[in-house]
Design goal:
Layout (H helix, E strand, L loop, with lengths): L5 H4 L2 H11 L24 H16 L6 H21 L4 H5 L2 H9 L5 E5 L2 H6 L4 H4 L27 H5 L5 E5 L14 H19 L4 H11 L4 H32 L8 H9 L3 H19 L2 H6 L23 H30 L3 H27 L10
Antiparallel strand pairs: 1-2
Length: 401
Amino acid sequence: MFAGKAWCYVCPWDAVATWMERLRLWRKTDQGLGLGLPWPRRLRNIWLATALFVGLTWIELGFGVTLSPRATAYMGLGMLVMTIVAVFLFERKSFCRYGCLVGRVSGLYALFSGVEVRPRSREVCRSCAGKECVRGTDTAYPCPTFENPARLRVNTYCIQCTECIQACPHDNMTVNLRPWAADLAAEGRPAVDEAYLALLMLAITGFHGLTMTPAWPALLEWLQGLGLGEAAAFTVGMAGIMGLPILVYAALVAWSHRLATRGVPDPVPYGAYFVRYAYCVLPIALFYHLSHNLEHLLMEGPKVVRLLSDPLGRGWDLLGTAAWTPPPLVSLDVLWLMQVILVGVGHVYSLWAAKHISRRLFPDPARARRGQIPILIGMIAFSVFSLWLLKQPMEMRTSAM
């Protein structure tokens, strides 16, 4: 929301893997140990990252990883191993572009970011013969995620490494501050894989919240009563809850498509319509995500002070705070008010994004407005569900609250 994909700039997994492959911590080198193979053509999309994202959620919540520091560490090491293998096998940062679940989720959220790396003048880029930002220089690498910085329109795959700024001989690349959600109103290149990841992000954020409410154990108990084992019940429940929002979205888009394209000689195909509108759910997912994690931050965050005295669980009291029981930073009423405001902001931004998408699809204002009606209904339903989830008594995974 504030710094776009700045996480990628400080990613520990990529840092360790890159240092190992280049055998140095800084300065450019062309003598790395990697094979530099091209990423498989069939995997030049984000379906792999999407599968890893869903798989991580299944493992994390289905097998109690959040309750085990050791299991969490193994997951972190597994991510490191994947990154190291990819760095040594493939060219540039192929895994960051196509396979990293963290990078792809943050990439879609970065469409909302107030920061961007862009050329100052596209005319200067068009007249540039060297294309150093694409090819690299003696002191700067080419764009590690295979972007052409001169043509950047959205933040999705730019990791803000600033190599293009260092490489540009015309001082034409820069970091800009901009209005939030600027990319959602920009004329980007909608993609099927990105659309489904956006919908899954909405579904999974809601799923995370639901698993912390009394409704989730009741659902699991009902599924187990049908003869399913514990793991099977969790899998079926997760699949159903994640698939339902996508089915609802598909039905609403079909309704919207019918209203907006009725009588149009050459209407926009349903598939393209489905993909384009998926981007307008991102603000709802992002702001529910922020609202949900605000509860963790403000209710559980002060416990960090206590844990600093005994960071390894050895019974230490380094700072004299090991026995401290910190109160929450805000009351439940204040927390609820903050969450309602955040969900409301996300809802408004989603409506704003839908308006821009409609106008691009249909120059006729009347058709654009008709097409937005089902989408508006869906957004209201998703926002109301978000508020319902946030209002439920939450059981924190690290301790009862």
